[in-house]
Amino acid sequence: MENEEKKLKNILSEAKNRKRKENAIARMTKANEDKSNITISDAIRNIRVSKNLTQLELAEKLGMSQNGYSKIERGYTLLTLPRIKEIAKVLDVNYAELLSQVEGFEEEKEEFETVKINEEIRQVKLKYLKRIKEISRQHAREEQLLRQNLKEKDKVIQLLEDKIKLLESR
To answer: What is the DSSP string of 116-163?
Structure first.
């Protein structure tokens, strides 16, 4: 009896998952035909459901709470491009593919590209600033060694001058 109940629960669960996936695919298909109503939140939800992931599972993969992730899908959280890329990576889709489903994406594509370029520029600046700091520290160490060498040479010169004076005085 218990075994049959488990089988029935599994069949019901599979049917629900199949229906959710079919609904997500239908929404994605409709969204691709008419992009006038889809948001980034809708696109993320559609892909998540099509991959049979729960909000909790995706939230855990993103390192956030289910409640926080739910706010993303409901459109209560403003998503940055890095966050969109992170979500796309976890969903195993290209972020451009994800964004291409969004209403107004074509108009905002340049803005996203600008943000992307600015982020890349910022990363390059940080890289070079880090390198400049490393070189400055190395330079400071070398300068310190040179000063020590000069002091040692000054001591040797002083000793030699003292010896010369001593020899001259004899």
So the answer is: HHHHHHHHHHHHHHHHHHHHHHHHHHHHHHHHHHHHHHHHHHHHHHHH
Digit-coded pLDDT (tens) for 34-72 = 545 678 888 899 899 999 999 999 999 999 999 999 999
Q: How far is C-alpha 59 from the chain's CA centre?
A: 15
**Burial status of residue 87 (CB atoms within 10 A of its CB: 0-12, 13-18, 19 or more):** buried
Could you tell me the two tokens for 37?
A: 């109503």
Q: Are 44 and 102 in contact (CB under 8 A)?
A: no
- 113 with 121: CB under 8 angstroms? no
Q: Which pLDDT tens digit goes with each residue over 97-127? A: 788 777 666 655 666 677 778 888 989 999 9
> Residue 157 corresponds to which tokens in the numbers above?
């010169």
d(CA 102, CA 80): 14
CA 112 → CA 62, 77, 105, 107, 141, distances in Å?
A: 22, 17, 9, 10, 43
Tokens of 120: 């890349």
State the pTM of this model. Answer: 0.45
CA 20 from centre of chain: 30
